[in-house]
Each structure stands twice: as C-alpha cells, then as structure tokens.
Amino acid sequence: MRSMLQASMLLSAAVMCIGVTMPRAWAEMTFVRITPEQYQRTIHDVFGRTIKVDADIVETGFRDQGLLAIGARKLTLTSAGLESYEALAQQIAAQVVEPQRVATLIQCKPKKSDGADDSCAAQFIEQAGLYLFSRPLSQSELKMYVETSHDSAETLQDFSAGISAALVQMLISPDFLFRVEQAYPDPDQPGKLRLDAYSTASRLSSFLWDSAPDGELLATAKSGAILSQRVLDEQVDRLLNSPRVEHGLRAFFSDMLGFDEFATLSKDASIFPKFTKDVQDAAREQTLRTVVDQLLDKNKDYRELFVTRETFLTPALAALYGVPLPRSQELGGAVPWVPYTYRDSDTHIGLLTHASFVALHSHPGKTSPTLRGKALRESLLCQKVPAPPGEVDFSNFENADQSQLKTVRERLERHASEPMCAGCHKITDPIGLAFETFDSAAVPRTTENGAPIDVSGEFSGKDFDGIVQLANLIKDDPAATSCLITRAYSYGVARAPSAQERQWLDGLKVELSETGVKWRELMRRIASNKEFYTIPASEPQRADALQ
Amino acid sequence: MSISEKLSRRNVLRGALGGTAITVALPTLECFLNTNGTAYAATGAALPPVFGTWFWGLGLAPGHWVPEKTGANYELPEHLAALKPVKSKMNLFSGMQIFLDGKVNQNHYSGAQGQCTGMVSRNGSDYSTSIDTIIGDHIGKGTRFRSIEVGCDGDRKSTWSARGENGMNPAEISPLALYTRIFGPQFVDPNAAEFTPDSGTMVRHSVLSAVSDYRKSLMKEVSATDRSRLDEYFTSVRDLEQKLAVELEKPTPLPACTVPEKFEGEDVGTLVGQTTTTHQQFTQLIAHALSCGQTRIFNLSMGSGFSKLREAGEAVTYHSLTHEEPVDPELNYQPKCKWLAEQHMAFFTNLVQSLDSIQEGEGTLLDRAAIFAFTDHGEARLHSMKDYPVFTAGSAGGRLKTGLHISAPGDAATRVGLTLQQALGVPVGSWGTESNRVTKPISEMLA
Predict the structure, then answer these.
(1) Measured between beta carbons, which residues in chain A are less than 8 angstroms from residue B385?
(2) Which helix (H) or strand (E) is A357 found in, with range?
(3) pTM exceeds cut of 0.90
(4) Do the interacting molecules here have an ipTM over 0.90?
C-alpha cells in the first residue's frame, strides 16, 4: 500500500497549495494531544508502514471521566515527554531519508546532494506538512521549515540531512503532537463556535479512523465543502466503509475497556504458570478481534457483545481457558487465531468472560469481585463507584478469625458488615461475585478451596444465578446502551457532552435502543451531526472569545 | 544570558563553526577545582547543591517506628533497623499530618500530593507544581537534564513530579534506557582531555530553537483555556534546547565524575527481588549523573501509593495486604506489611549510601545533597492522614543538620518541604494552601 505522501506525489498533489496564507479566521484554538497509537498510525499513513515507530517510549496520558481521550484535552507535554518525542522524530526522519525511500517520497531531484536545494526541499516539506498537520502550511511556516532544511543541509553538507532536520521540527511541533482545533463563530447558531473546515476533517478522521485525514478528506476541507451537510454525510459514509474504520473501532474500545492497564498487569508465575506474556497480549487481542467481528464484519447489535458465544482463540488462550483447540503447529500459518463458538451450556459468554476482563480486574494471585464489579459499573455502565473512605476502622473485619472462610463471598460478607464499607461494596460485590467461576487468570472453576461457589445475586432489582444470567441482564439494561453512546460521543469530542448535547444523545439512545445499536449507524449519527463539530460556549473564557 | 540564548539558532549553524567540528584541548582537570576538590578554583564557589525526592507507598507499621527520644541521641526502633548505617546522615520526623480541609480523602494520593505540592485537590486528576520543580528552578539551571524521574515498579505514572497543572512528569522505568539517556553517545565526559562539539547535535539544537521561535506567534492565537498548556509545552522545548546546548559546551571538569559500568541486563517488575535490583540500578545511575553534573534534581519513586510490590507466590499486592492482612494480636502489627515496609527502609539506605559513596574532595556527594523522603499515608490500613513518617538525608552543602529525630505532633508535614526550599535558597516565606500553608521552617534542622 502506498503511503499518502507517495500517492499525493503521483497524483500531482491535488490538494497542494503553495503560498497559501492562513488567515486568522478563528475565534478559538484548542489542543488535544494525540495518542501514541495515533502518532504511529499517522506516520505509517503518511510515510508508509515500513517505517519503524517505537511509540512505546512516549508517555500515554491519563484517564479522565472514564476515557483517556478526555484526559488528552488536558495534557501538555513534559520535558521528559518531549525528549522522547524528539528521539523518536530523529529515528523516523532518519528512516524517511534512507536512499530506498527518499526516491519515492521526494519526487524532485536536488541540484546537489551535498548541500541545500530550497525549491526541492519546499516540495517535500509542503506535502509532508499538509498530511502531518492536516492543513496546508502557511507561507511563513513553509519559509521557516525550508530555512531549517537549508541551514542543516549546508552545515552537514547533505541535502537529506536538511530534509531530516525539517521533518524532525515538524514532528515535534505542537501542530503535530496535538490535534489543533480552530473554531469560529457559527453563522447558523449565534453564540456558538464551530470548527473550521480542516479541524472538522481532523476530528472526523480521528474519531472514525484514529488517524489523520487522507487526501480526499483534506480536499473537501480545502474547498470548504466539508462544512456542508451533504458532503459531510458523504465523507462520513466513505470513512465508515473504509477498512481503516477498524482502527477507529479498536482505539475506541481499547480506551473504553481500559486496556492501557495491560501495561502494568501482573500475575504470579508460580500460581498461574499458563498466564504467560503471550497469553496476556492475546487476551487483549481476543476481545478486540471479537468486537471487530461482531460489530463491523457481522453488523451485530452492540448489546450482543455481552452474550455472544462467538470469539477467537489462540492455542495458548485455549489452553488457559481449557478449550479443545488444535495446537499451534497443527494450525499452520503465522497468525494462530481461530474462530471458536462456545456451546450454550458453557460458562464462557460474551466479553465479560474474556481474560481481558476477568484477569485484568483481579489481583496477581486471586480474584477480586470488588475490582470486577467496579470495572463493570464504571467502564461499561458509566456508573461512578465512590472511592473507599479515609480513616475507616477495619478492626472488626480484619481481626476476626477468617480461617474458616473458604470462599471470597464469605470473606466479603464479613467486610460488608462494616457500615462505612458496606455502601460501596453493595454496589460492586454482588455483580462481581457472579464472575467467581473464573479465577484470577480467567481459568474456569466450580469450587474455591474445595467449597462450591455461589454465583447468585441481584442486579437492578432482578435476581440472577451465574454469569450467563447476569450477562443477559446487562445486555438488556438501558445503562449499557446509554454508556456506549455517551462514551462514543465524549471520545469523539474529547470532553464530556454539554447539556444540549446530552439532550440530543438522550433522543439517540431511545431511538437506537429500539432500532438496534449498530456500530456504523451510531458512528454515522454522531459524525453527521453538526453539533459534533461545535464548541459549547459554557466556559467564561469561551464566552470572552465570542465577544 | 543562558547557554541556549548564547547558542542561538543561526549563530550555531552559520557562526564560527562553518560546518567543521572544533576540537578544544582542555587543561588538566585539577586546575579547575580547589585543593579539596569541593569548589571551583577560579571563583571559590562551592559545588552546587543537589535535591531529590524519594517516595515509598504505604508508610510504616504504626506504633513501631517512632523513636522514644527526640534530638540527636535517639535510638532507632527495630522496625527502622535498616536505616542504621545512614542514621547520622539523615533526619527523621514524626507526628506530622496533612490536612484535608473538608475535601474527600483521595486515598493514596491526597497525602503525597500535600507533601509534594503543598496543596490537596478536590479530585484525583488535579495536581500542581511539585517541590522538586520549585527547587530545580532555583538550583537546577544550566544542567543537561532539568530533572530525572524514575519509577521502580514498571509504571510510567509512578511519579509525583509536575510542572503546572497539566500533567505529571512521566517516570523512566527502564534502568537500561536511563543509562543510554544519560551516559549513551550524547554524554560528554567532563574530564575528557579533548572536547569536540557534535555537528548533529548542533543541528538538533537549531531545530529546537526554531520551535521556540514559533512560540510567540502561536501563543497569540491560542485560547485562554489552553494557553498554560501550550506554555508548558514550550517550557519543555526550552528544557530540551538547554540540554543540547549543554552538550555543545565545553563542560567544567568534575574529578568525582565517573561513568558507571553498563548493566548486563534488567528485570523490571513488582516482585521484591526485581524491585531491589531495579532500585539499585537507578540509584547508581542517579548518583553518577549528579556527580557528573548531568542534573541537580531527581525524583525516585518506589511505585504508586497503591503499591504492587509483593513476594513471589503472594496472591495479592502490598496495597491489598494493608487492607486484608489481619493485625497480629500478639505482635500488634500486620507481619507481612511490616516486612515489606522494612524492605523500603533498606531501599532508602541504599539510596543514601549510593550518594555517600561518591567522594568529592574531603566530603561526599551526599554532603551537598538534600533528599526528601515521603509516603502517602500515616497508617495505610486506615488511609490515615496523621502521623506521617518523613525523612530527609544529606546536609545540602552544610545548610542542614543531620542525625536528628524531630517530633512535631499535629504540625502540617509541609513544614519539611518549606524548610528544604529555604535551605536550598529558594526565596519563599510560606508554602502550601489552606491548613497546609506553613510559614515556619523547622529551625532545629537548619545549620
């Protein structure tokens, strides 16, 4: 697959606009820091997938109101973070100017290889800038980067080194490390700001593709056509029908399900020898593969994710779960992922029985109904579980003789006898206990310390007995649908929805609950809504901007 | 004028160098220091002080760590026996607390935040400038690294260092990566006979300068909402610019500076054995980085307050143990938790000894250092904000007394932070907010 830069060179740069001066047409400029994944994806899209991007070395951000995406609007870049990005930019730039790539990425031939050629450098810089910043460079910006290229090429007596230096400068610029959103007073809605055409394109591609806009989308921004409902709808459909929408889906669910916690997940090797690093990596992939299969490939209702018997397994995962599957060498092929459907009598049902849920939300060597119940409430139902109180006296709980208590349910019931603890544990533990048929490493079990496990409980006023019944109750609970829709919108705008947006979302929730919570339809409805590209003027400084 | 300003972008690339590297022969290094090796000969100025924070989660076993006597002649309780080798080089504070002023106790967060920033926020996502940044702005300028942050538990978020309100400084979690960052190809040995500025570094520096130049035009356009975030981004640009500028300058010889041997490997994780090795590797690197003038500020964290430390085969983490392990009625403590707390005391001793092992003239690196050690709770089991154990180590170039146990029942623990700031010359009369605002330093420890 050609990179965007190669493609645009070959197509005579349909959206080139040398010498464009960006007028100051906006009333507000805000920044959302891109994630390590978006960084990597954009580099691959612009320069090709053969560029090695070690994005693990950069900082990941923090979670706010349930999403890393919201935290990204509050993040800056620390000294150590910028140092990492500069090192990464050096590595990438060095690869871009390698002889085998430079021929396809830089179409003009420099007048000399041992010095500067401003005209040739400008061609490259202009194209790279367009795709990296998701907007054309202004004249003054172009001049600045060409100057960097010129000075460096002359100093190091190497044209490529000049290109490399200018590219590094672009890659550490806030215009690249942050998604810059420029907004102007909305002519249709007095008192409101709406994103300009390039920022609209950028938010759209970030939302649906988890990457920067491609040439076609940028062309609609250049002409301003993206600001019309008709072209916006066309582009939304085009993006949703592209294979790249899978990247967007994976990025959203990785954020919503808190998969960044895999980075620090630890299981005790002596207690769970089968829970290897490979299994840990596969656990995350199992869920994402299942989500892609159900929501994109099969266009199933989101709620089915809680009860689907269909999934994908590797031999190592199958061994962990105790599922018969051919061994890796018998399967052949480099990717040992095999579609697998559990029987109706199995306890494995839906995402919540994947290791990415039951093992991720457990202790290193034992389960935690509290952590599981909390994760279910907060990540998938958007319900806030209060933090444990301070200065609480645990003595009644801790000093009791617990030697006779074999199951975690018995131990937690003792815990809940402490009034200060009981309030919150009642929110988390009853549903968390339903998962006790999976140990801390997600291995199915029926007993704990020789005692049978009681997995009965109550959720939203309804009794259940075991994970299969609970999964069905969650599937039918309006909170599950509501949570997905609110999270998806918040993820796209990188903030909590405003009161007006919440009103619109409430209507959407009712409608989709009846017609089906289909992923593409949900994304289409959000991304085609012009409100999605506005900025609420609720904060004082924003009100100032409107004066 | 800062080094960065002197080395302005076009000056570097178009100035004296003209595209060729310069080789500068340096005189013998002893000429630069006085006979004791503790000060610069030319100016008589003492080697600059250095400052570091050391965080450990979950405090100590309550009722088992406060010495009976105060002052210089106290005896370490058995729980603190691991500190014995460094007792005379450190201070121990007891009885202090962090005030919540009616805010919700963000468990394992508010107390550490209070001690490190002087304020307690309403929620766990707010933060503000930390003490290392305040002190670093005063004593840390002109070094290659503004500061070095490390975490020993494999989690980049295990850090309490921040500039402003928009993000914590991420922790380096790999000792090997930190080795390369400090002592890799970009390291300039201050004691090398010759100095050759690297032309590639010149270009990198000029690129950073160009980004800095961009600040003025961009700041005019940005909304008030994001101005402080963008300003912090450009502060980071200037820090990196400064780092490269230092790499382009002929360094001042430092006789005590030696490059540590590169480790054969690393094993980052949350088991006690892994953490012991990781901490040792980090302390070695930090001590050498300080003695080689690479930084004057460090932040070393054992992990988050929700400590994941555990022994192999243990089903739950240290944090979970503090809430789940019964208090032994005869011993009157949680045995596993107490043991883990004692491992931390051994880690702290290891840090202090690492700095003390580097001889600088008649003294050691520790003599010009001030280390601030703090934890998240007085009694982790109860999420208590009272009776915090706090330590300092080092005499900050003669500005601090050591070997003391200071009891200050009911006082805000921010007094320790204020005292350290004043000892290191920060012109500040008060520190902290609301009930954690303090105006009185701990005079007993000021020399």
Answers:
(1) 390-391
(2) helix A355-358
(3) no
(4) no
